[in-house]
């Protein structure tokens, strides 16, 4: 502790810092982003909103496909009507052939990297042998309406169609494509689409997507998005209306994007009745019950049925088909509109799927609608099959299967709920707020993972969310920078997709909401972004600018640090100096000096001399003593009191009060070791045990990005300072967050070299049940719905 001397004429702390902090340490982390963001124009404004001349193209589809359940193949044909709403004249069109990622000669196969291990699983071998499977599109014809062949060029996953006459603004062209391809075994060749074979009942379950040639996006900011599909960067597509007819074995149940328009032709009377009941039910209604699905598994229909679906204003279409499907449904109201939430799953998914899936779908639609925009599509579907998690308009494919005995771990349960929330949530990002996934994965996965976190927390208090909490991203952000990319990295070049495109942006938005902006400002701005760009094609700048425009918060430093860089948070308290005001009152100050002298530690020499040195020379010769041998510098004299009274008379009443108010002054030295500028959240613990939290905006670092000194003034003595006590900033090293320093606990685990499989808790409880309970069927969980 030191005294802070106050002099008459200069009372209080000076208006300017005592120590100059006017260097930005060679960088400027608060520089504005204008040089990095595109120049605003009539299509995209400086506020982040679509401009008055904003436009986007349209593609409408009439598709006919047939599923071959014997050969696991698809044949199809389509009519595409493409409308040019741009101001440009187009001489050719680009069509995506994403299924060509499974072509034997694909770029993905040619550039995949791997290593041969001395011991390899068959699954790893299947990955290496992927090129043996021929799953690419076989384009049979490309014709103009009327039957004339269209010149076309296939370049891996892209196909250019050369138009016979230029397509001018406001004009449309209709052409047709016919094709076929082989469906991949999803368990061997993991893609976003495929089949699963069930050897027990010799049935197939199909989850089908990217099954048709799809129009690429022609964009005001970058023209045609014709970047090749390599497998990691997903899709960007124009909006349009779809009518899709799917021909499958007659005993199959088919689910798809959109509304089933011919239920009378494909559903039984009982199934149609249940479907109607589900629209007003309070809990899911089984449209196809498990006994029906089990009976269908044993049969093999010789004929086919054609299921026809219609979907309006969507960017894509996907479907599923199997005779194994159980189907349940639950109607909800969302913003006054009816939404039918549904699930399709085999009996192997029960009891998890029958209990949770459709309820999770409904919860997700409601929660996302609250944080973004109202859901406007008529259905929302979750399908269980071989694809672990993939999203399409109104339908998604999800994993999460219990053990064969019907039991499951908590991790499996919450993993299943989370993946359904995540994939259903993709209806909002990017199916409605239609960002370019091929270029910027974070704009759909990151934003979606953030709202997924909010939705999980509203499902169950303290839900074990995998992503969103700042503490969960610490291991990634503290890695070697050579193992990281900035969030603003093209999808195909990202090193760690899950951390970079899902976890880090989701965490960044959570930090924005909870720590930087506050919930009220953030929620308003986030909803405004969703409102502005619903059914449009936003770019990163549109998001950055809207969040600032609608909140009035300058966030350029945040985007620069979290999205354009790879710095991490590591703030440290380097030291604390404690000052109190010298009251000049000799009675008070001399008593304080006496306490400090008495409390001062004795040196080892002084301690030993008390016993070893009985007398000194002065003790033997008193004549050597003078005034100073008896002088007590801490004793108060009349002269001291007189000088104090004279001094007091020179001060105003306010100055006298300032001199004696007993304030404590703490000079806290802070260092930014990680490089990422962040708000400084300081918790002070007083000697009476009470605590106070102070939130300092990140702008404290604007004059010096590395070192700052902050003065805290308190009425009570502080015994400890701590940074980020509630883990809000993803600080990667908590050991330097406290003063005085605290030991940061860590743990290590000892384990046997050979570990036996441990039953999950449900299995252990089941095995402990009495024989009577087992006989009555109450000691285990069955696999029925």
UniProtKB/TrEMBL annotation:
Residues 1-20 form the signal peptide. Keywords: Aminopeptidase, Hydrolase, Protease, Signal. It comes from Hymenobacter crusticola. Residues 754-785 are annotated as: Disordered. GO terms for biological process: peptide catabolic process. Pfam families: Peptidase_M1. Residues 359-562 form the Peptidase M1 membrane alanine aminopeptidase domain. GO terms for cellular component: cytoplasm; extracellular space; membrane. This is Aminopeptidase. One of its GO terms (molecular function) is metalloaminopeptidase activity. Residues 754-765 have a biased composition (Low complexity).
């Amino acid at each position: 502790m030191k005294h802070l001397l106050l002099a008459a004429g200069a009372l209080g702390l000076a208006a300017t810092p005592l120590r100059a902090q006017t260097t930005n340490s060679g960088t400027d982390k608060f520089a504005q982003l204008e040089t990095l963001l595109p120049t605003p124009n009539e299509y995209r404004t400086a506020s982040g909103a679509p401009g008055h001349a904003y436009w986007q193209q349209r593609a409408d589809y009439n598709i006919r496909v047939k599923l071959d359940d014997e050969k696991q193949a698809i044949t199809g044909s389509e009519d595409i009507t493409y409308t040019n709403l741009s101001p440009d004249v187009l001489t050719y069109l680009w069509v995506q052939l994403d299924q060509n990622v499974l072509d034997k000669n694909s770029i993905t196969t040619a550039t995949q990297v791997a290593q041969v291990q001395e011991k390899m699983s068959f699954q790893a071998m299947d990955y290496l042998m992927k090129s043996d499977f021929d799953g690419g599109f076989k384009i049979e014809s490309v014709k103009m309406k009327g039957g004339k062949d269209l010149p076309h060029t296939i370049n891996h996953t892209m196909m250019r169609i050369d138009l016979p006459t230029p397509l001018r603004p406001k004009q449309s062209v209709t052409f047709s494509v016919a094709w076929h391809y082989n469906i991949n075994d999803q368990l061997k060749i993991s893609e976003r689409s495929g089949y699963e074979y069930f050897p027990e009942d010799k049935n197939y379950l199909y989850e089908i997507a990217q099954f048709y040639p799809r129009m690429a996006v022609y964009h005001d900011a970058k023209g045609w998005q014709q970047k090749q599909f390599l497998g990691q960067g997903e899709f960007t597509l124009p909006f349009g209306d779809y009518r899709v007819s799917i021909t499958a074995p007659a005993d199959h149940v088919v689910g798809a994007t959109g509304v089933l328009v011919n239920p009378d032709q494909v559903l039984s009377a009982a199934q149609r009745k249940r479907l109607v009941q589900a629209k007003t039910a309070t809990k899911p209604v089984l449209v196809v019950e498990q006994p029906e699905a089990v009976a269908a598994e044993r049969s093999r229909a010789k004929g086919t049925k054609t299921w026809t679906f219609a979907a309006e204003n969507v960017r894509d279409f996907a479907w599923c088909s199997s005779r194994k499907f159980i189907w349940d449904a639950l109607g909800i109201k969302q913003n006054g509109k009816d939404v039918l939430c549904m699930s399709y799953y085999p009996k192997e998914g029960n009891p998890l799927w029958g209990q949770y899936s459709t309820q999770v779908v409904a919860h997700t639609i409601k929660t996302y609608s609250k944080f973004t925009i109202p859901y406007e599509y008529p259905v929302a579907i979750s399908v269980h099959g071989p694809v672990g998690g993939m999203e399409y308009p109104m339908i998604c494919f999800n994993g999460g299967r219990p053990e064969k005995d019907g039991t499951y771990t908590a991790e499996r349960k919450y993993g299943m709920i989370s993946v359904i929330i995540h994939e259903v949530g993709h209806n909002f990002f990017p199916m409605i707020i239609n960002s370019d996934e091929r270029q910027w994965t974070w704009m759909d996965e990151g934003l979606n993972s953030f709202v997924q976190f909010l939705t999980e927390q509203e499902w169950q208090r303290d839900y074990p969310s995998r992503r969103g909490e700042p503490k969960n991203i610490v291991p990634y952000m503290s890695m070697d920078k050579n193992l990281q990319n900035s969030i603003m990295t093209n999808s195909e070049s990202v090193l760690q997709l899950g951390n970079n495109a899902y976890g880090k942006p989701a965490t960044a938005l959570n930090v924005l909401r909870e720590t930087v902006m506050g919930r009220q400002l953030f929620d308003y701005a986030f909803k405004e972004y969703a409102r502005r760009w619903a059914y449009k094609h936003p770019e990163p700048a549109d998001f950055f600018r809207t969040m600032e425009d609608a909140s009035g918060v300058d966030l350029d430093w945040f985007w620069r640090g979290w999205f354009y860089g790879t710095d991490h948070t590591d703030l440290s308290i380097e030291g604390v100096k404690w000052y109190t005001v010298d009251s000049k009152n000799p009675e008070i100050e001399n008593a304080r000096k006496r306490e400090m002298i008495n409390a001062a530690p004795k040196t080892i020499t002084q301690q030993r001399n008390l016993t070893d040195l009985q007398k000194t020379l002065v003790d033997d010769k008193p004549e050597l003593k003078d005034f100073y041998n008896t002088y007590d510098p801490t004793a108060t004299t009349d002269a001291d009191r007189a000088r104090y009274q004279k001094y007091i008379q020179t001060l105003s009443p306010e100055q006298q009060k300032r001199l004696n108010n007993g304030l404590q002054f703490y000079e806290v030295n802070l260092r930014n070791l990680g490089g990422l500028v962040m708000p400084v959240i300081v918790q002070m613990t007083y000697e009476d045990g009470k605590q106070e939290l102070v939130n300092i905006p990140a702008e404290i670092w604007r004059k010096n990005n590395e070192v700052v000194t902050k003065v805290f003034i308190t009425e009570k003595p502080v015994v400890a300072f701590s940074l980020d006590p509630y883990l809000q900033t993803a600080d990667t090293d908590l050991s330097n967050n406290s003063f005085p320093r605290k030991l940061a606990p860590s743990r290590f685990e000892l384990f046997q070299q050979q570990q036996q499989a441990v039953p999950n808790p449900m299995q252990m409880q089941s095995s402990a049940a009495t024989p009577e309970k087992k006989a009555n069927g109450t000691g285990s969980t069955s696999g029925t719905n």
